[in-house]
Amino acid sequence: MTKIINIILLLTVLCIVFDSQVVVAQDRAARSLYVIFDGSNSMWGELPDKSRKIKVARDVFNRLDASLFAGRDVALRLYGHRRAGDCSDTELAVPFGPADSTLSKISKQVNAVSPRGKTPITRSLQAALTDFGDRAGDILLISDGIETCDADPCELVRTWRETKVNVRVHVVGLGLTDMARDAMQCIADASGTQYLDANSDMELASAIKQTAASKAPAARKPDPQPQSARLEFKLSGVDKKGHYLPVKGTLTNASGKVVEVKSNHRYVFDGGAYTLKAGVPTLNGKTFQPVSKKIKIKKQGSTVIQVVVPRPAQIVTRFFAKGKEIRGVNATAYQKGQKLFNVRPGEDHFVLPGTYDFAASLNKDNQLKTTATVAAGEDKVIEFQAVETVRAVFKVMAKGQDKPIRQHQELLRDGKVMYKIHWNNGADVQPGVYTLRSDGSLTPYQIDNVKVVSGGKQVIALTVPFATVKPRYVFKTKSPSKDYRCWLVRIDANGKTVATSKAKQCDGREITVVEGRYKIRVWSRLGKFEPTEFSAVTGQTSEVLIQEK
């Protein structure tokens, strides 16, 4: 009887587990996933690990597996990807469809994005909600910056939640500044989801996976009304056209106590009269033309104060060579020779109106400078015009071998050294014809008529005829060590030293050398050995025995 009861209990548990898995699968399948992807100009910028944001995003989307989405329908909207400075540039690139057939289309679209425009987040969210129709689901907003066109998306999403729109917004911030992170965090908070930072390839992939695995929200219970909730205060900023602006400032009560406040944060203050002073923070470290107004915070409930503030100048740096946009670097702004602030490439920044000198060090050939005057309310592109350079890597190998010689190089033109070249990383050089030279102790070489062509990164494989030697210690008895170091000394016809190698392991392994006469300098800890000299001949392999006395 006990055995029968146990079997019944086991079957019951299995049924419950199976049913719960089916419910979860059905629940996730019923909720569509809508990706909104940032194609604005700032996506040319870099993450903390120096990888370019757009490149990281492309790589991650190329690796996505449909199994992550458990039967969900998936769609993609892009913004800022077609036209610079156009706030209407938002497009449904891939309509809803099963993940199995849609992910490849999404990956193709993301790979085709050439970042160039603004950041119309609010407009894209509104369009996404229309695309959902009567579907329930989740929006995954992947952005590296704040709203630059319309009203605060945070308020839009809060309205959705309050009116029980069955669409949640998950936010992934790509390499955000603190100010931008606050704005993106606000959107996630307003939707009741978790904001996720992505500062690397792995973090972006993890964030997408986490969102894809999200379940339908539980039925929302009425919000409790503790004292902190009853006295909630939130600050929001807009310009005279109603476009979102990040603001910061101070709140002063009747007794003169001053507290700092900023947009996209929630605060708890006693109800009553206050003086608010707020404006847009700038890279100059100053707030632009802050406005003051008397406000009242309710004694219960939530008080949202929207302050209309003047819009400062807004700048973004872009780099060009031969008419094409190229990867940029941080620029520094000066006035009257005094350094003021740094500007990250491709990102929108608020600054005080005025005339600035900008400098950027792209590479050896491009120490760039430009001057620009910006006015309040103006969006200004700071353009740097560079000469074309390409990343060139020279893999020089001994003839008949497949491993490059690990020694640094120089590029010469008319006998003058133009560039120092890292053997593995290469260097940025202007296209042209050069002489490649390297002064290694054992493998010096000079190769004429080396061509570097226009275009992207190039790896140029070159071969040089060398000799190969295999020096080996020969002991009369057991070796006192397993470390068989020795030094190869290149000598001239008179026996004088030309160059000495770094320590090598003389245990019979191959060593590449230039043709010539050599002698061996032994390691004294191994004992005493007969003087050893030999000749190395190009194209030949010589075994060299180092005989113990």
Structure report:
The protein has 549 residues and is of the alpha+beta class. The chain folds into 5 domains: 28-212, von Willebrand factor, type A domain (Rossmann fold); 227-308, Immunoglobulins (Immunoglobulin-like); 313-382, Sandwich (Immunoglobulin-like), CATH 2.60.40.10; 390-464, Carboxypeptidase-like, regulatory domain (Immunoglobulin-like, Sandwich); 467-547, Immunoglobulin-like. The strands form 9 sheets. The chain has a 6-stranded mixed β-sheet with strand order 3-2-1-4-5-6, with helices on both faces. Strands 31, 32, 33, 35 and 36 form a 5-stranded antiparallel β-sheet that branches. Strands 7, 8, 11 and 14 form a 4-stranded mixed β-sheet that branches. Helix 2 packs across helix 7 (201-212). It starts with a helix and ends with a strand.
Query: What is the CATH superfamily label of the largest domain?
Result: von Willebrand factor, type A domain
CATH topology of the largest domain: Rossmann fold
Residue fraction in strands: 35-45%
CATH class of the largest domain: Alpha Beta
Give the structural class: alpha+beta
Quantity of strands, as a count: 37
Tally of domains: 5
Low-confidence stretches: 1-29, 222-230
Helix content: 10-25%
Spatial strand sequence of the major β-sheet:
3-2-1-4-5-6
H/I helix tally:
8
User: Could you tell me the radius of gyration in angstroms?
Assistant: 33 Å
Q: Summarize the main sheet.
A: 6 strands, mixed
